[in-house]
Amino acid sequence: DLINWYNTKNVFVTKKHLKADAMARHILEWFMKTEYDVLVLLDSDLVVAPNWLQSLRNGLAHSKGLLSLYRSGAPKHVSTKCDNVLCQQPSMGNAGTVWRRSLVEKMLSEMPNRDGGFDWGWSEWCDMNHIPMEALKESAVLHVGVHGSWSRESTQEKSIGFPMASLALDIRRQAELLLKG
User: What is the pLDDT of residues 69-94, one digit of tens each?
Assistant: First the structure.
């Protein structure tokens, strides 16, 4: 369906199942082989708002670093400062991140390949290199996976400012059910 929806040839399924960290790096390395300038990572436990693409474009127009469509409510990712469009983040995970080609190229060339902690690694790399980590003030994606690989922390991963009322009623009801655990 993705091939038809987005008129793209760059959709594939890996032959070997990779864990989240290895898959994140694999996707970024794959992205560097495409002709695209922007990559959006949408985890399978995210629901996109109907206006997500407009929000993405607006966020890219204002972002000076790594952008996320997902503003997390987890204490470790608490926003430090917000303007009308974006909030500064001290860290962020992979879900909903928006990567520009130039940033991926620089990060992959400077960050060693390691098992475990890749997303925390690039988050630390951004911090050390003074690359802003910015999330949309109003999340364009809803995180519904509350029983994930990070267990206790997953239950705190609530999207801030996501427009629940914009979802179709049946989708909204299912999302609310998942958010209750």
Answer: 999 887 777 888 999 999 999 988 88
